[in-house]
Amino acid sequence: MAKITIKDIAQKLGLNFSSVSRALNNKPGVSEETRKLVMETAEKMGYHPNVIARGLVSNETKTIGILMPDIINPLFGEITTAIIETANANNYDVFLSISNWSSDKEVDNIHTIQQKQVDGIIAKSIGERSTKMLEDVNVPVIGYETWMMSNKFSSVSVDNKKGGTIAANHLIDCGYKKTAILHGPWKSSAGIYRRDGFYEAYEEHSLKFDESLLYIGDYNIKSGYNMAKQMFREHSDIDSVFAGNDVMALGVLQFLAEKGIKPGKDFGVIGFDNISFSHLPQIELTTIKQPKYSIGRIMTKLVLDEIKNKNEGNKTLPQRILLEPELIVRNTTCKR
């Protein structure tokens, strides 16, 4: 089926091309009656505007590019939902690219997003090469947890270091004596901040963290399960774990269930993120809450502000925005 054009609509209604174009683009010079007729006819005929062609004329495509490592993890899904809803509320569309935690795929996705001529980009970048590319694009960029990798564009995140401190203090207050840390990938900025915050809390209590209890993995269930198996094999007297995210914590809980170990009373588990699964009755995971929707909303508002400033010829200085973490106590930790 041939694509419907403005010319087709003009011929259908017996109007000139410029009148139909002005009506479709909400420009002055046509009556409200004509505008309504054009819009109704365009919808009936199945007309879809060529966003890129429109962008060549207006220098805007009204589109924001989103780069995420995945959306299977509810953390990224909830943040992405907030971005989409906030963008749509401001009459912007989005173009979403998923890298599946591949740095090569992430680089390809940046090339694709640039080809789409988006007006701005919101990114959770995972690689140094892709971060460098984002520094050099000619549209505004807002990062999620990217400040450690680059301070050349603005970044929004929860205060991960403070979150790590809160987690450590909670486990200490509960009376757990030997805690392992399940870190994400070694270069994960979020993991580094959370670990450092945990260490600081230990120092404040005049405690020294045993580095043999630091395990490096990936932010997925399988990694959490495998690290739990390893830490129990290497440390039979371990009594608690701080998982770098809730998904890894789910892997730990799976291992504990197989071994008949009761979370909370027998063994403490605290995660990070407060994803939607963590409050389910069969899980009830103690965790550090990220304000996920607020993060997505703030990133979108920042990129829209920077797009506006760019169009007006104004420069925007990069900023780092940290949001407050919150301890959510459930059944996987308790006073001992």
Describe this structure in words.
This protein has a 6-stranded parallel sheet with strand order 2-1-3-4-5-11. A 6-stranded mixed sheet has the order 7-6-8-9-10-12, sandwiched between helices. It has 336 residues and is of the alpha/beta class. The chain is built from 12 helices and 12 strands. It has helices at residues 6-13, 17-24, 32-45, 51-58, 74-89, 103-115, 128-136, 160-174, 189-204, 221-234, 246-259, 292-311, and strands at 63-68, 93-98, 120-123, 141-144, 154-158, 179-183, 214-216, 240-243, 268-273, 286-289, 320-323, 326-328. The N and C termini lie far apart (70 Å). The chain folds into 3 domains: 6-49, lambda repressor-like DNA-binding domains (434 Repressor (Amino-terminal Domain)), CATH 1.10.260.40; 62-158 and 292-323, Response regulator (Rossmann fold, 3-Layer(aba) Sandwich), CATH 3.40.50.2300; 160-290, Response regulator (Rossmann fold), CATH 3.40.50.
Strand order of the largest sheet: 2-1-3-4-5-11
Q: Give me the CATH architecture of the largest domain, please.
A: 3-Layer(aba) Sandwich
| Helical content (DSSP H or I, runs of 4+) | 40-55%
- Multimeric status of the protein: single chain
Low-confidence stretches: none
CATH class of the largest domain: Alpha Beta
Q: How much of the polypeptide forms β-strand, as a percent range?
A: 15-25%
What is the CATH superfamily classification of the largest domain? Response regulator
By CATH, the topology of the largest domain is Rossmann fold
Number of helices: 12
How many domains is the backbone divided into? 3
Question: Main beta sheet: strand number and arrangement?
Answer: 6 strands, parallel
Order of helices and strands, N to C?
HHHHEHEHEHEEHEHEHEHEEHEE
Shape: elongated
